[in-house]
Structures are given as C-alpha cells and as structure tokens.
C-alpha cells in the first residue's frame, strides 16, 4: 500500500530531526578534532618480532588442468620487453604496532625470486586479512630494435638500479635512542628516463643497497593512482597524516595496458589528482597472449560459475532474452503508438547508433503483460562478456542477467518500512556481476557485485561457496542488485538508517551460471570467433520512460528528499528503462568501485 499523507509527514519530520542531530554530532566531532589537532599516535615497537602471521587463503577446491592454450595460467606473462612473474612468498620487515595486531599493517620483502628476475618494490597488507597478496618481479627479454634510442643508436636496458634513495617517512620520533623496532620508508630515485615502481621498507636509518630493487624504463610503464587507503599514521611533527595506499593503473578497462605490480604508495602530503612518484608496468604485447582462448573460457565458467539465488518472495523473475521476445515484447518508435513484434534473436531491432530516444522496448498489452512481467526462471541464463583487465594480466568474466521487470522499492526509515508502490519500478532490468581471474595462475581473484548505480569488489576469501570453487551470488528482491551474503542492505545513509532496502536470501529460486550461460562477446579473440546476438547491438532503452506523479506529496518531501537521500538510486526520482549491456560504461571500462 502507498503510505498516507499523514504517514509521509511523520516520516519527513523524523528525517529532519535525525538529520539535524547527525549534523550536530558531526560539528562536535569536528570541533574535537580541531582542538586536538586530529592526530593519531601509535606506540612504537620495542622489539623486532613479527606479529602473528595472517592465515594463508586458498580456494576451497584444487584447480583443474586447463585446456591447452597460448599463455594462460603458465605462471609468467610476456609484457613485450619484460617478462613478469607473480611472487607470493614474503619475509616480514616491519609492522606498525597497535594494541590489537589485527588492526595493524605489515610490510614485507618478496623472497624466492626466480633467478634472473628482480624486485620492483615491497608489499604490505592489513593484518586482519588472510594472506593472499603478491608482487610482480621482472626480467628483461632480449631487446628489440624498437627500444633502440635514436639519438645514440644504443639500446637502453629495460631495468636499471636506482641512483639513490629518498627517505619518505620514519616511525622514529627523532630520538637516536629509540631506533630499535622503527620502520623507514624509502623511495628509489630512478636514473633519467626511468621510473620507480615501488617503495622499500627497512628497520634501519641506513639506506638500502642499490641492487635491492630495479627501476623500469619509462616507455615500459604507465601512470598509476592511489586506490584504497591501507594505513593512516598521525605524527606530532607534521600536520599531515602519513598514508599508505594500494595502487592501480590510472587507465583501466579492457583497452587499458597498465599492469598492477602489487606494490604500495606512501606519502604525507598527497593531493588527489597529483601524479605519483611511482608507476605501474605496461603490457606492450599486442597479442595479450596470457588471455584465455575459447576452450579455456568455457572451462573457467564451468569451474567458477556462481549460483545466483533470488529472494524467496521474489515475483519478478529473470528470463532469457529470446523468451521475452517470443512472449510479446514490442519495439516502439517515437511518434508511433503501435508497437512492432521482435524476432526471437532480435535481428529486426535497430542496431548501432546511440541512445537517442528514437526507439524503445516495452511489455505487451492485455492479458500477457502481467505474465511477461513475472519472467520465466526456467529459461533464464547468464550472458557472458569476457575481456582483458589490468593490461591482460587478469581476465574479467562479466555475467549479465535479464529480468523483464524491476519491481517497486521499499523505503526504510529507522525501524519503519514503507512500500513505495510504483516508485522504483521499470520495464527491462539488466544486472550483472563480474569474475576476475588471475592470468598467471587461473585462480579466481575477486567478484564484482553490481548494485544499482554502483557496486563493490569482494575478494575471493570473503565469498560464500556452494560447491567447489563456485561462489554464491544473491539477487535482491524486486531490484535484482547483487550481493555476496544474505541479509538486508540499505542503499542511502547507513548512519541515519535511511534508504532503500535490498533484501537478499537463499531460496529454491536460482540459476546455475556454470551451466546456464551464453558467451556473447570476447572482442580480444578477434572478429567472428564469438558470434554476438542481434539484440546486443540494440543501443536504445529496454523500457519506456517512467515519470512519477509526486504532486500529491508535501513540498518538503518533494524538494528536500534529494538533498537528504543524495546516495539513493536514481530510480526513486523517475527513470527510463535501462540500456542494454553494450551501452553501459563498464562494457569497455572498468567496474565502478
């Protein structure tokens, strides 16, 4: 039922009160931070013992032998003039000390480096995570004529030692007597024409030896950026926090050639947008030989394909696209009130172009409308797009699922829940999740869960598994957003308890993507290797424009909700039916998150 005007007014009053209370708390917190300088202090270690080692993570089941291919899962990847190997063995160097070791961060030196390969930087991770990190080490492949400098006619080596080190930060408080157990962070100073790839950490103020690391010729690198904060450390000698970040290539997506090395970035005065003093590697191999071939793609899906569970109270089930077309979906054109039936493969849909509002798809009219809205679980399948990630060192397997209808939303305000009737519903719903596979080993590394206008990457060690290495994906009631665990997720302001409910749970309604799927695109394999269905080229809306009549609502609700619920999905304010997968930014680009 739609809430009454009185109920809405009560909700608005509650929202305003809670919002003002939250703002007051924020002001008080800010005043306290300014009073005490917003500094964080960590007690220095008085010994050099490593904290308890995090538990090493392994996938639930062993990996199968993959079908033969060119360079997938062979343990090393050719990047053009460099060959890279993933190293996962480390020696403890230093950890910031906290009362709880699990809240600390530990820094490691890679060990077990193969002969002829060189370290590019050190690794770190939070102590509350299972141990599954890596760094890349590299060696030079015999030079090619393209790397010869025109000015000298002599080839410059791909790797060179740094010329010096700069001390970036130390945990020492300036006392000569308290050096024991302190950490010292060093940035290699590269020769002219070269880039540093990572930092080194020592327990001594003495500079590391120059042969401990290598710098990389600049044309073999790409710009990288800070990604996620790993550590914040306050200091009494500076107004700035010392921060440690994970990094990623600045240019991501299937066309990006930047390669994540696994090293970290650190600084005490970084400004967002500022270029970092380190870089990532660049894959100059035009063939991307470490990507899986067609047989290997099918083997990966068979081994890792998640099971998608729908809510036990879900009434808007998925279907195959062909079932949707066969059961009466219509193509409409601007200015024409009569819809045209659509061929089962979508071959008569206008292809290419852009989303110009000239065409859209809608449900059939009459008795068939409600039955089509309900979907058809038995026909449902995942539509798979395979693409390179992180310069072809990882493979992204994006799995798209189609629902003929997206149901209305439910608003949560504290302990109260309000069904929003029609608000949030639309015809045609495309949702997806993405498996990221490591091309060095063939391991599942993480899964991206798409959630309305955003989403989140979840590491393999934080997933639920139903059988072997097959994870579970939960689809939310009505909205079909994807989540890694059952429960209720609030999209909006979690602190205020205000937002749209996303309820997910296990049920008897599910689709096994390891068997119910269709490979629809893998551009890197070349033209004609994967036949793209006709409907994939339809770049317009899969549903008509939705306009919500909110004229009956109080002015304060109409004009204040946008400010209060700035993080809510745009469906609440009216939305057109979504475009198809190929029109989404993440078809070519990386996922949001």
Describe what you observe in this structure.
The chain has 593 residues and is mainly β. It folds into 2 domains: 192 residues, no CATH class; 236 residues, no CATH class. A 6-stranded mixed β-sheet has the order 28-27-26-23-22-35, covered by helices on one side. The protein has a 5-stranded antiparallel β-sheet with strand order 15-17-13-14-16, with no helix packed on it. The relative contact order is 0.13. The N terminus is likely disordered.
Q: N-to-C terminal Cα separation, in Å?
A: 35 Å
Structural class: mainly beta
Provide the gyration radius in Å. 27 Å
The counted number of beta strands is 35
How many separate helices?
A: 5
Short structural summary:
This protein has 593 residues and is mainly beta. 11% of the residues lie in helices and 32% in strands. The chain folds into two domains: 76-142 and 158-282, no CATH class; 294-320 and 375-583, no CATH class.
List keywords for this structure.
32% strand, 2 domains, 593 residues, mainly beta, disordered N terminus, five-stranded antiparallel sheet, six-stranded mixed sheet, 35 strands
Question: Secondary structure elements and their pairing?
Answer:
Blueprint: H1 5-35, E1 76-78, E2 82-87, E3 90-95, E4 105-110, E5 123-126, E6 135-140, E7 159-160, E8 164-170, E9 184-189, E10 194-195, E11 200-202, E12 215-217, E13 221-233, E14 242-249, E15 258-259, E16 264-267, E17 279-282, H2 294-304, E18 307-310, H3 321-326, E19 330-333, E20 340-341, E21 359-362, H4 368-373, E22 382-389, E23 394-406, E24 410-413, E25 416-419, E26 426-438, E27 444-451, E28 454-459, E29 465-467, E30 470-475, E31 482-483, E32 487-493, E33 498-504, E34 510-512, E35 517-521, H5 555-564
Parallel strand pairs: 18-30, 22-35
Antiparallel strand pairs: 1-2, 2-6, 3-4, 4-5, 7-12, 8-9, 9-11, 10-12, 13-14, 13-17, 14-16, 15-17, 18-34, 19-20, 19-21, 22-23, 23-26, 24-25, 24-33, 26-27, 27-28, 29-30, 30-31, 32-33
